[in-house]
Amino acid sequence: MNKNEQSKLVREIYARDAADLSPAAAKFAESHAVGRRERRIAGSIATGVADLPRLSVPARLRAMVLDRLRRPA
Amino acid sequence: MVDSRESVDFEELFESTQSMIFNLGMRLFRNEEDALDFAQDAYMRAYDRLDSFRGESRASTWLYSLALNLGLNRLKKAKRLKLKELPEDESWTIDDLEGDAEDPLEQLSDAEMEAIIREELNELSDVYRIPLILFYFERLAYRDIAERLGIKEGTLKSYIHRAKMILRERLLRREIEEP
User: Fold this and answer.
1) Do B23 and A64 count as a contact with CB atoms less than 8 A apart?
2) Is B110's pLDDT higher than 60?
3) Contact assessment for residue B153 and residue B47, using Cβ atoms and an 8 Å cutoff
4) From CA B53, how far away is CA A66, in angstroms rounded?
5) CB-CB neighbors (< 8 A) of A7 in chain B
6) Where would I find the H helices in chain B?
7) How far is the C-alpha of B5 from the C-alpha of B7, rounded, in Å?
8) What pTM was estimated for this model as a whole?
9) Quick check: B137 and B26 in contact, CB under 8 A?
10) Rounded mean pLDDT of B68-74?
11) Which of B136, B162, B170 to mutate to test the interface with A (most CBs of A within 10 A)?
């Protein structure tokens, strides 16, 4: 497989969900070392973004919102 | 018609949603001060607009949508979200596809790889970072994101694709240069 063909399949791995890959891209992602690596990276990007940490809320937000609303206009 | 100001306990709404709204601000603006300012503004606007809440969805869903639009508009006004049509990526040849070479990521666990992705995500330009977050974290549909950003669905997909290719390249470069 030449570089252009590989590039096309790799682009497809990043452009579509794993379940929507064409048969050629699915086979490449399954059976080729580069395809497996790229599928792993694509999966890590999706998971890495989906699992962004949730931070605790600074206590002063309460005062910034509720105290301000309670203040007479 | 039910008066929304009476039907929604605003203090209770604040308590149950403050983490969601503050964290949305952190994802959009990347710093605590801007996130707090955004959250305050979102609650003030929501309070002022309680009359427009029809009770067709949960109050938290209504608030989230209002806050997200407010945040995206702030980014647009600051010219941090200028999305234009992107040229097709079809002609790109990816240069680092080494068929038989050793995989530079082999020694990395999935968790380590995801941590690097999150570091690099934080460094991405907003035009790539925001669409990726709206799709994978906020789990919004392409159509919904495209509408909120005022772009075509195809353009949105191109930005998400391009964002992933940039993260891929940075991940590989980091592991090749400093394994």
Assistant:
1) no
2) yes
3) no
4) 19
5) 92-94, 97
6) 4-7, 10-29, 32-48, 59-77, 110-123, 126-136, 142-149, 153-177
7) 6
8) 0.89
9) no
10) 97
11) B136
The Cα B54–Cα B5 span in angstroms is 11
What would the pLDDT profile of B22-33 be if each residue is shown by its tens digit?
Answer: 999 999 999 999
Alpha-carbon distance of B16 to B103, in angstroms, equals: 46
Are B41 and B70 within 8 A, CB to CB?
A: yes
- Residue given tokens 């941090």 in the structure block: B80
Copy the structure tokens of residue B31.
């710093």
Burial of B122 (0-12, 13-18, 19+ CB in 10 A): exposed
- B89 Cβ neighbours under 8 A, 6+ residues apart: A11, B158, B161, B162, B165
Chain-chain contact of B117 with A49 (C-beta, under 8 angstroms): yes
Q: Which residue has the tokens 């209504």?
A: B62
AA letter at B22: F
In degrees, rounded to 5, the angle at the alpha carbon of residue A25 between the alpha carbons of residues A21 and A28 is 140
In chain B, what residues touch A48 (CB-CB under 8 Å)?
Answer: 113-118, 121
